[in-house]
Structures are given as C-alpha cells and as structure tokens.
Amino acid sequence: MDIVPAQAIEDSLKQCMDPEVPLNIVEMGLIYGIDVTQNNDVNIKMTMTTQGCPLHETLVADATRFSKKVPGVNNVN
C-alpha cells in the first residue's frame, strides 16, 4: 500500500474555507503539521483563528471531510 503524501492532504485542505474570512485554512496559517501513518491514518495539527472560536467544530469537521476526499486516506484526527 502506498502512503498518501502529506502534500495531497494540504492541497485538499485548501478547499476548506474559514466561514468568517474569505481565505482557506492553509493560507490563514491554521495548519501546523500533517502526519500520515503507514496505514494512511492522517493526524492534523491545527489551531483556530481565536481562543474559544465558536466555529471550532465546523472547522474541524470541514478539515476532516476534505482530508477524507484524498484517495487512500483512512482515519483523520
């Protein structure tokens, strides 16, 4: 099994837009790291725009959804 490239995940995350700002979460600098394991589980280290961000759950759900669009991705954390 080929390991999914982290760049493919990042490219997909560029479709994930912040609901309040017309920028994607990658351009905003919210993604600090993407780790893909041997079995193609993806761990994303990210932050929110503000502490206590009211859209935290929405941003996490969107990041998960766009990551899973990459062929071969299993679980996303």
Percentage of residues assigned to helices: 25-40%
Query: In angstroms, what separates the terminal alpha carbons?
Result: 20 Å
Shape: elongated
Taking pLDDT < 50 over at least 5 consecutive residues as the criterion, the unreliable ranges are none
The ordered H/E elements are HEEH
The residue-averaged pLDDT reads 93
Q: What would you report as the Rg, rounded to the nearest angstrom?
A: 12 Å
Main sheet strand line-up: 1-2
The percent range for strand residues is 5-15%
Tally the beta strands: 2
Major sheet summary line? 2 strands, antiparallel
Number of helices: 2
Main structural class: alpha+beta
Main features:
single chain, 77 residues, alpha+beta, two-stranded antiparallel ribbon, 2 helices, 27% helix
